[in-house]
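Re: that backbone. Tokens:
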């Protein structure tokens, strides 16, 4: 029996949500390191106030996005992949 080319929409969505959950820590590390890349090399003065506000905003957005991803992943049942054939005898 030939397998279908495309996945069921629910299975596809759940896989993309899992991919987003896997990428979130990498994105978080990049966004939290980003303020160190800002700044002028000519001056040693850093704007710690704006950097602090940026870090807390990014931190808050990461918490919210992780909570939303966790809620979406836990609310969707682990369905059987529609593309995989069932055991038939």
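Recovered sequence:
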């Amino acid at each position: 029996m030939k397998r279908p080319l495309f996945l069921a929409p629910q299975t596809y969505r759940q896989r993309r949500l899992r991919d987003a959950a896997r990428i979130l820590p990498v994105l978080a590390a990049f966004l939290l390191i980003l303020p160190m890349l800002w700044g002028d090399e000519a001056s040693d003065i850093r704007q710690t106030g704006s950097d602090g506000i940026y870090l807390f905003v990014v931190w808050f957005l990461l918490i919210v996005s992780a909570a939303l991803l966790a809620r979406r992943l836990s609310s969707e049942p682990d369905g059987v992949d529609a593309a995989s054939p069932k055991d038939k005898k």
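DSSP finds two helices and no strands in the chain. The helical segments are 9-37, 48-75.
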